[in-house]
Amino acid sequence: MARRKRNRNNFLLNRAVIFLLVFLVVFLGIQFFTKTGLFFVPGVVHYDESLNEEELAALNQIFTDEITLSKDVTIRAEESETLGEINDGEYLYQISVPVGDFYDEKSDIEEISEEEYEWIPVSELDFSKKLLSINGKYYLDDFKSGAKFRKIIFESEKFDEEIAPLVESEFKKTFPDEASVLTFAQTGVTALSRGMNQKLSEVSGDATFFSKKISDFLSGFDLTHTSNESSFSDSANSKNICSDKRFINTLTSIGLDIVELTGNHNQDCGNQSAIDTIDTYDSLGIQVVGGGKNSEEASRPLEINEKNTGITFLAYNQSTGGATHGDTPGANQYYEENAVSEINSAKERGDFVIVDVQYYECSAYVSKTEDATCDYANSSAGDQVGFFRHLIDLGADMVVGTSAHQPQTFELYGDGVIYYGLGNLFFDQVWWPGTTRSLVLGHYFYNGKLLQTKIFPTAYDNDMKTGLLDKEEAEWFLNRLISVHP
Fold first, then answer.
1. What is the pTM of this model?
2. Among 125, 149, 171, where does a domain finish?
């Protein structure tokens, strides 16, 4: 009996030993083949020589001795002239753009490797520097060229599980793109009147005849502005500054969103025509600034809030006539106390402040050849430079003159920028070269910051059809204006 009991205990012990041995073999085998436990080999971080010092410093802050990886990871950088696909394990880490001085005559460089121009991160881009294109590729046009695009690439079998949670806060960044950048085209004088009324009848009433060459360009901006000086009226003819009602199609064809009414001719065909014109704009969703059916409406600032950008648009008439002083329609008369209050309120909201001014006109209509008199900001009556600079001193970020029938110079001043006169976008003044030209200001805003204003010169021909100047003529004309800035 004792022997049988001893045999039974030995049998159970042997089974236990066999079970334990099998368990250990399986357990250690799993560890061996999976490289865990006793056989665990921690993953190694391999830094490629393509990484620069800044990137290595950021990576060393993440992959410290306290971090244990189960798989190796190789990290490298890749730079290209175009933005391609961003795949799993890749992060767009930096976009660098070429810039020149604000007054730089050159606007395009031929090669991305050119070193005579400064390269800066796009986060440092602002309106005080001139963004350059590369072989005609302008970064803010499509956000996929005209820059250096640098990616950081992580290669690991366990990228999603191990690497992404560690690096995303540092390497997953947002950059300007079409969805986040607010584009805003600001144009000069529009007066669809006089000879344009006559021409309209000659082209079978097709008001888009005058805008065909520029409508696609202007309507491509998120917001498009013009300063229209003439109201729609049944009394429009070849002698007055009133618009045939069919000219509304010219404005809608350029995608007009904002119409400025600081001009001194909107009442030329009577108050009722001015009121009806404002109603027409309202029915089409076109916002009005700098004028209205009465002084209260005319004085209202235009607040724009789109794509995470706030802009306050103020527009004043300064001593050119046409202002409203009560219940009649007209332009918003400039009063210092109003400007101070409105600018301060806008700045308290954190808005970017644009102030448009209908100032005294430059009237150098004395030659059928080139006359540069109006290029100079102080060529018109009064102290134009002093007045516009004073508005910057009051807190405006940008001041724009919208009365000049000929483009004028521009400058950086204080913490802002001034464009003294934009010239004629649409008008019938075909007799002098200066009055056929205008400047379109293409503003690019990102998260409330003005990244850049690109200037696009235009001109209309003898048929009063407006189009962009070609590259050579545009550069010549802009350089002429730059050469006389204050």
1. 0.91
2. 171
